[in-house]
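User: Structure with zinc ion, tokens only please.
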Amino acid sequence: MKYYKKVILIFLLVLISCFSLSVGSMAHEMYYKGYVYNWEPIPLVWDEMVSGKAHLKMNADLLSANYAQFFETVSEIWPNASSKVSVTRTDFYSAKVAFGTATEAEWKRRFGNAAKDMQGITDITSTDGILIKDAASAEASSGRIKYAAILLTPYSDSFEHDDHIKATMVHEIGHALGLGHPNYIYYPTEEPSIMRSWVDYEGYYVPQQHDIDDLDDKY
Ligand SMILES: [Zn+2]
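Assistant:
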């Protein structure tokens, strides 16, 4: 009887450690399929790789001055934090990550009454030309992102201060890299992350360990 209990205990411990390992080593994706507690990730990765790094060619010609002043600084933040990312700033036509400031009409069209609460959005397109906007389109796509259009809010009073603007820009680049929100319904974590979706600024604008681990898992 005692032996039997011990076997069950060991079995449970092994089960628990397998579960935490599988959750711990899984990057937070933007889209999942399945059901609660059994979400199945739909992995998305940046397509263009140079020397083993996701290579982002960025441009900010369509950014208003309140954001453009931070573009150069912001563009270096992911490559400084992670060995899996490199960035070059290019002209608009060569760029694969294009920043722009939305018009008020565009922002209201997208978000309606929530327009003033939304700080940024990233539209991603796959190598096979699919605009990825939900789990179905993510699953139908190649899973490889070839282009990201990052739009920022036209309402400058959406931000508490400059670091909040930088945090939003870094967050949106994270989506271009295929990262999802780690505090959403899919395997949520309380760990600090630049990819948390928030309304209030959390006190940092650089990727956190969680984000670096997610990129190491993906690339
Ligand atoms: Zn987001």
